[in-house]
Amino acid sequence: MIYTKTNVDFISFFYVAILLTFYGCSSEEPFAFETQNFEANTILDCEFETCATFRINLLTIHNERPVCKKINTEIEKVACTILNVGENSSKDTLEAAILEFNNLYRDNKATFPDETPSYEASIHAELGFQCKDIVSIVVDSYIFTGGAHGYGSMTFLNIETKTGNRISNHDLFKNYTDFETYAEKVFRSTFNILEIESINSTGFFFENNTFRLPENIGCTNTHVILYYNPYEISSYADGPIEIKIKKEDVASYFAYNIL
Fold it and tell me: Quick check: is 1 in a domain?
């Protein structure tokens, strides 16, 4: 997780090229992602007013093909969702979401000058895996807007390479329920929960005492990741719950080639 505070004192907007390759899944050319780094001063006027602290690193493809533009848009949408913390926030471009997050900070600071701490937003995207059919991207984020602590989370973004569209968790699998049944067995084995015992018997809080897959499912080169963010099935103090399953053990459940 990203929990490091950052200080933005100068304009920094640059690209660090990272050429990412396949790992034995196709002979077709992979997408060439680059990391685009944003700092607050590239978008905001922070010379005379205090700004929230931003550190945003997103993957992007510098290619005019429609599918590449679509992939870039899907990655940007994830960052916007993370930044949309206000009650009525629903910005769909990164620039608009940064402005909205900063305006929320300034409004609260003006209303409660002695009680509003500096807001922070850290977002970092990395490639988990890419293959002929699918690209899996993981976005590590940390948001602080006051209180005892901020909130760190992971978001997995699975994208269909042919269309550039985001793949829902249900559409990842040939049969979602079958995979969920398999995943419950792995989960119970990992946490020593007998089949005859309640799934919540060791302190988890699955709704209706029924196992469910996490909101975030992704791939690395070797594993399928089931990632429960804090509060999803356990307390913040317990931290995230991560289950790793070897890809070859579950590839047959997937509607896409992940090997």
Answer: no
